[in-house]
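User: quick one, fold this
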Amino acid sequence: MAVDYDAPRTRTEDLDPESIEEVKAAHDRVASRSRTHDDAVDAVETDEFVLPGGDLSDEVLVLEVQPQRADEFTCMGCFLVRHRSQLVDRERGLCVDCA
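Assistant:
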């Protein structure tokens, strides 16, 4: 059966949003079944809940970038920096995995 996802919803259960308390209670029930006690305690102590795709514009990523060493090469297949011992096809610059 084809579903038109652009059509307005007419079912009453789709129109009535659940209260935040009901959602939290359902989440707690599922979490208590699938986690150990330590994990559940950590989840309760966490004040912040971050959704996937949330706004991370105020976060700073600290990463040290090192230049490619003399005994390394960049594979032209997967574009990973690898050790020279993994170079198989010197003409095309491919590693063991990509050759």
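User: anything notable?
Assistant: The mean pLDDT is 78.
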